[in-house]
Specification:
The complex is a heterodimer of chains A (458) and B (114).
Chain A (H helix, E strand, L loop, with lengths): L9 E8 L7 H9 L4 E4 L6 H11 L9 H15 L2 E4 L6 H14 L7 E5 L4 H5 L20 E6 L3 H9 L4 E4 L4 H13 L6 H14 L28 E5 L4 E4 L10 H8 L9 E2 L3 E4 L4 E6 L2 E5 L2 E4 L3 E21 L3 H18 L6 E7 L19 E10 L2 H12 L1 H4 L4 E6 L3 E12 L6 E5 L4
Parallel strand pairs in A: 1-2, 2-3, 3-6, 4-6
Antiparallel strand pairs in A: 1-7, 4-19, 5-14, 7-8, 8-12, 9-10, 10-13, 11-12, 14-16, 14-17, 14-18, 15-16
Helix pairs in contact in A: 1-3, 3-4, 6-7, 7-8, 10-11
Chain B lengths: L1 E3 H4 E8 L2 E8 L5 H7 L2 H7 L8 E6 L4 E6 L21 H4 L3 E3 L12
Antiparallel strand pairs in B: 1-6, 2-3, 3-5, 4-5
Classes of the chains: A alpha+beta (458), B alpha+beta (114).
């Protein structure tokens, strides 16, 4: 095993993306200055795979995340030059197709013959379709209730298969659905040769992953409140990295000169992000206990993570199930000046009535009021009677068909001529097809993760 | 003295399905007990009336001076299908900061004045 760039017992793992369409530029900056050993790009939202499963049906070579091509062209030259290995879930619904696309795009920027290990086996749609009795975790109804509308079903794979993919020696590992922290733990497991049953090490790798998986959310993103929680040079936020030692010590860092902020406060907010019971944070690899967790600021932009704990993993894989759930239509229009609120309310009522008259169907309608100074400039005038000077009406509806969804937005847009006096900014956002998600638990032996190697250096 | 959570703590919200978790983290160890004794799950739910429709559970993470509120039925049916402008619920943490509470005058120095 090639030692890392920071000595024999430390591995440096950087975050190249924290969501499907995260900014690429700070990832490039991190590669340039970060002296990374590995770059992990977390690129899947809840419903990305469902949407990409549909795309793959239309075009079998597609089904990976839309920004894959641009990301690969931006990152691979730096990765190849420095020997940084990349791990990413941008394979989405087609990890094999993604592996080929990665090789093709890298070639375009002078990085030849990239070896790619694709992780497959997360797709369990066929398997769970045969089990209508499975209970949906949100709401408790049986899976049967969703079967006619199912679009996708993918198990959250763990760090073990990521480790196995890295063991092939491939430059890039591309997966479908893998639990976010597992992408990072998999790197540490592989690099340090840890046992998959070594709980203190699983805790270390998992907490490092949990803190890093949302990129800037630990380095000053989703944090600033001017005058109260100041973030230096917010525009130039640096993406984070973690130094993980062979004996399981974790330090989070960001590169010198990068904007943002990394300290006990930013780490604490990210530590509890999307956590329910902090004593039982379940991943495919272990059950984390964050109750003893503490942070120690060692230096500017360096925070040590103390005392994460892990208990043995559960017997199940969690599966995220995507299903068709109708359409949403949205329209907006704004009013300002005297009596703006009354005009906005009237507009909402009229749009709704016309929607019904013209045969629109909606099971749920939401009417919102937004606004400050978009219509009449920043004049500092208050409204009268304690009401706002300006208000933007937003009407959103849940519709069973596309026509109704578009009709709703259109009835709001048409208020421009056919509604109250002095409107501004009429908008029909158009019908949006909804793929909703829920989840089920399945026995581990229903899932067969596999690694498929694509390409290799001669 | 009367003050608001805004002066004692910072907060962040996250989403999972139709559930929002909002963590409230005290600025100092001395302020944490006052947050803990007054910002109960019940009061949190009342403060979020109209937004949080399901139960609220509160977890105490003493090591981080943090309270983690897990609020069910808070995201309009779930991020993927919500009609709400803020379908992720990322703006929700701002609301708890306005919650009013009492602290001893002796701790006035710990507060984050703007």
């Amino acid at each position: 095993m090639k030692p890392g760039r920071h000595g024999a017992s430390t591995v440096r793992i950087g975050t190249g993306a924290g969501m499907a369409d995260d900014r690429i530029y700070p990832g490039v900056k991190l590669l340039e200055c970060g002296e990374l050993d590995y770059l992990v790009c977390e690129c899947l939202a809840e419903r990305t795979i469902a949407r990409e499963t549909l795309n793959r049906k239309r075009a079998p070579e597609h089904g990976y995340t839309p920004m894959l091509e641009e990301r690969v062209r931006a990152f691979m030259p730096l990765c190849r030059e420095q020997g940084v290995r990349m791990v990413s879930n941008m394979g989405a619904a087609n990890p094999l197709g993604a592996a080929h696309a990665i090789r093709r795009e890298a070639e375009k920027v002078g990085v030849a013959d990239v070896s790619c290990a694709a992780v497959v086996g997360d797709d369990v749609l066929e398997r769970i379709s045969a089990h209508p009795e499975l209970r949906l975790l949100d709401g408790g109804a049986p899976l049967e209730s969703l079967l006619p509308r199912l679009a996708s079903a993918n198990a959250y794979l763990g760090a073990d298969i990521v480790r196995d993919a890295l063991a092939t020696g491939a430059e890039v590992v591309v997966t479908g659905r893998v639990a976010d922290p597992s992408l990072f733990l998999g790197v540490a497991l592989h690099h340090h040769g840890w046992s998959y049953d070594d709980l203190p090490m699983l805790a270390a790798g998992t907490i490092a992953g949990h803190l890093l998986e949302c990129s800037v959310q630990v380095t000053g993103g989703y944090f600033a409140d001017p005058g109260r929680k100041d973030v230096p040079d917010l525009a130039n936020l640096g993406y984070p990295f973690a130094d993980v030692t062979r004996d399981g010590r974790v330090t989070i860092g960001k590169t010198p000169g990068s904007g943002g902020r990394l300290d006990r406060m930013t780490c604490s907010e990210q530590a509890l992000y999307e956590i329910h019971d902090p004593a039982r944070y379940i991943t495919p690899d272990c059950v984390m206990d964050l109750m003893q967790l503490r942070f120690r600021e060692e230096a500017p932009d360096r925070v040590a993570v103390l005392d994460p704990r892990a208990h043995p993993r559960t017997d199940s894989y969690k599966v995220v199930v995507g299903y068709f759930d109708g359409y949403i239509g949205i329209g907006e229009i704004a009013y300002a000046g005297i009596n703006a609120m009354a005009r906005a309310r009237l507009a909402g009522e009229v749009a709704e009535e016309r929607f019904r008259i013209e045969g629109g169907v909606a099971s749920e309608l939401l009417v919102d009021l937004i606004g400050v100074s978009a219509l009449h400039g920043d004049h500092g005038r208050a409204g009268e009677r304690g009401e706002p000077y300006e208000v933007r009406l937003r009407v959103a509806g849940r519709c069973p068909d596309k026509r109704s969804a578009d009709l709703l937005g259109d009835m709001v847009r048409q208020l421009n001529m056919q509604g109250p006096s002095a409107p501004g900014g009429p908008m029909n956002f158009g019908a949006k097809e909804i793929i909703a998600v829920n989840s089920v638990l399945i026995p581990r032996d229903w899932v067969r993760p596999e690694v498929v190697l694509v390409g290799g250096r001669s | 003295m009367s003050t608001r959570v805004y002066d004692l703590a910072h907060a962040r919200s996250g989403d999972k399905g139709n559930t929002s978790n909002i963590c409230v983290i005290a600025y100092s160890e001395a302020l944490y007990p006052h947050l803990k004794s007054q910002l109960t799950a019940e009061r949190f739910k009342a403060h979020y009336a109209g937004v949080v429709k399901g139960r609220v559970d509160r977890y105490e993470v003493d090591g981080l001076w943090a309270l983690n509120f897990v609020a069910q039925d808070a995201l309009g049916g779930g991020v993927s299908r919500s009609l709400c402008l803020d379908n992720y619920g990322k703006s929700l943490s701002a609301r708890v900061l306005a919650f009013e509470l009492e602290i001893p005058d002796s701790l006035a120095g710990d507060l984050k004045g703007l």
